[in-house]
């Protein structure tokens, strides 16, 4: 049976057929391809090449600390109630910024900045001020730069929100996950409804330009009925963007998830019904389904960029800054240049040691080939805009698309027959049926993800 919702169509049989484990394609090649042996000198050379391109900059700063563990979490975090832990970290992070900026041509404008975590508001106001001063000392911001931060609404007050706005942040994101108290209790993320509405009121009062909230479907004790209530309360908050992530239960990879009662998790068919209902409710209220797990108001930059086929993806998700090269700072952070990816150490000891030794604290990296860059372009256009202009690829890379990707186009035939995608002499178009399975379509062009790695990936739905 097929159900149509706005520009998305649900065919439950097809979804079950294609619900395989495939990359999320926040990058291509995926982050699983980052290799040990990538050195500080390799990274210095990549930065030097980046300077020659004079691309604008996107900066990411990772604050890994959390005061308590959320059982659904799949992020790299350090759980500690001892706030002293952040003091040393901010010192080392500032030293990394100062050191790395010696290699970056900082005349290149910063068009995008994001603080993520962990919990960035784990930091005191003094620590926020100190880190902000270090960043501003080294980098130059473009007019109308996107400057965003994630917060945990349980550990913030009105003064903190207004301080962030006065510092220069103009975008903000916070996690709701679910309004239902039973669900919150089960995932150790208890935050009363009144608290969430208070936080949103402060954000709007402070005058932030854009607000994003995160939800998760597939958590214990969720039903279509209870999650519909969460959707309705989220709509009452009136955020500019809403992300609804699919919970991946992988306790063998994330041991904290062992605290979740597995028997209380919704079954696959109910998860699909929850997802269908969510898309229906949000699109009925005017939100645009951007794809994957994101929704935005029609006048939001994400929606406008997608309309203009200018949306891209990077390690932070969808981005409206396709030309910017991403530099990540802090523990575990990933940088994404035109032809090189690099990741910092994942353990504080190694991260601190590298900085003490006066070397860039990278632990892994990957140098993209021309074929990688080409395939990334194809995959990201399909993932972001549900459309690929073959002639544009042919002109940019000086090749005949159908000849270069002859094998992939043959492998695409079953997906065409199932109505997920259309391919002709000048374009590839993801259909309404294919939008929910766009990762499967992109996967056809992936030469880096072998079958043995797929067990480590989240399923398509």
Automatic annotation (TrEMBL):
S-adenosyl-L-methionine 2 binds at residues 72-74, 118-119, 177, 189, 214, 248. Its cofactor is [4Fe-4S] cluster. It catalyses: coproporphyrinogen III + 2 S-adenosyl-L-methionine = protoporphyrinogen IX + 2 5'-deoxyadenosine + 2 L-methionine + 2 CO2. GO terms for cellular component: cytoplasm. Pathway: Porphyrin-containing compound metabolism; protoporphyrin-IX biosynthesis; protoporphyrinogen-IX from coproporphyrinogen-III (AdoMet route): step 1/1. Residues 51-285 form the Radical SAM core domain. Binds 1 [4Fe-4S] cluster. The cluster is coordinated with 3 cysteines and an exchangeable S-adenosyl-L-methionine. GO terms for biological process: protoporphyrinogen IX biosynthetic process. It is found in: Cytoplasm. S-adenosyl-L-methionine 1 binds at residues 60, 117, 150, 334. [4Fe-4S] cluster binds at residues 66, 70, 73. InterPro entries: Aldolase_TIM, Coprogen_oxidase_HemN, Coproporphyrinogen-III_oxidase, Elp3/MiaA/NifB-like_rSAM, HemN_C, rSAM, rSAM_sf. Its EC number is 1.3.98.3. GO terms for molecular function: 4 iron, 4 sulfur cluster binding; coproporphyrinogen dehydrogenase activity; coproporphyrinogen oxidase activity; metal ion binding. CDD domains: Radical_SAM. Keywords: 4Fe-4S, Cytoplasm, Iron, Iron-sulfur, Metal-binding, Oxidoreductase, Porphyrin biosynthesis, S-adenosyl-L-methionine. PANTHER family: COPROPORPHYRINIGEN III OXIDASE, OXYGEN-INDEPENDENT COPROPORPHYRINOGEN III OXIDASE. Involved in the heme biosynthesis. Catalyzes the anaerobic oxidative decarboxylation of propionate groups of rings A and B of coproporphyrinogen III to yield the vinyl groups in protoporphyrinogen IX. Monomer. Belongs to the anaerobic coproporphyrinogen-III oxidase family. This is Coproporphyrinogen-III oxidase. It comes from Planktothrix tepida PCC 9214.
């Amino acid at each position: 049976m097929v159900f149509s919702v706005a520009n998305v169509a649900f065919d439950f049989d097809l979804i079950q057929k294609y619900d395989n484990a495939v990359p999320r394609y926040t990058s291509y090649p995926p982050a699983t391809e980052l290799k040990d042996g990538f050195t500080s000198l390799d990274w210095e050379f990549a930065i030097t090449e980046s300077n020659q391109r004079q691309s604008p900059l996107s900066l990411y700063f990772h604050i890994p600390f959390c005061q308590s563990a959320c059982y659904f979490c799949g992020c790299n975090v350090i759980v500690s109630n001892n706030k002293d832990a952040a003091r040393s970290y901010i010192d080392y992070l500032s030293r990394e910024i100062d050191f790395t900026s010696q290699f970056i041509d900082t005349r290149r404008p910063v068009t995008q900045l994001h603080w993520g975590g962990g919990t960035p508001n784990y930091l005191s106001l003094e620590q926020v001020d100190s880190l902000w001063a270090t960043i501003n000392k080294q980098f130059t911001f473009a007019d109308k730069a996107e400057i965003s931060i994630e917060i945990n609404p349980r550990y913030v007050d009105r003064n903190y929100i207004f301080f962030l706005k006065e510092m220069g942040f103009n975008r903000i994101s916070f996690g709701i996950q679910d309004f239902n108290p039973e669900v919150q209790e089960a995932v150790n993320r208890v935050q009363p409804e009144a608290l969430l509405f208070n936080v949103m009121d402060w954000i709007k009062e402070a005058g932030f330009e854009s607000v994003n909230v995160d939800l998760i479907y597939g958590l214990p004790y969720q039903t279509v009925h209870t999650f519909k209530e969460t959707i309705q309360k989220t709509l009452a908050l009136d955020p500019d963007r809403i992300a609804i992530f699919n919970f991946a239960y992988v306790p063998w990879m994330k041991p904290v998830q062992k605290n979740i009662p597995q028997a209380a998790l919704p079954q696959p068919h109910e998860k699909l019904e929850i997802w269908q209902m969510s898309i229906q409710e949000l699109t009925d209220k005017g939100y645009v389904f951007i794809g994957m797990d994101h929704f935005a108001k029609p006048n939001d930059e994400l929606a406008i960029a997608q309309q203009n086929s200018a949306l891209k993806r990077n390690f932070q998700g969808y981005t409206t800054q396709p030309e910017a090269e991403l530099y990540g700072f802090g523990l575990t952070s990933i940088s994404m240049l035109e032809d090189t990816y690099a990741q910092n150490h994942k353990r504080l000891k190694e991260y601190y040691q590298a900085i003490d030794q006066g070397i860039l604290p990278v632990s892994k990296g990957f140098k993209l080939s021309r074929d990688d860059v080409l395939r990334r372009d194809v995959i990201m256009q399909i993932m972001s805009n549900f459309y690929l202009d073959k002639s544009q690829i042919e002109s940019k890379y000086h090749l005949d698309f159908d000849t270069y990707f002859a094998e992939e186009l043959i492998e695409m035939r079953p997906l065409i027959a199932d109505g997920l995608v259309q391919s002709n002499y000048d374009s590839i178009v993801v259909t309404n049926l294919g939008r929910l399975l766009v990762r499967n379509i992109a996967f056809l062009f992936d030469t880096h993800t072998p079958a043995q790695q797929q067990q480590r990936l989240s399923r398509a739905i």
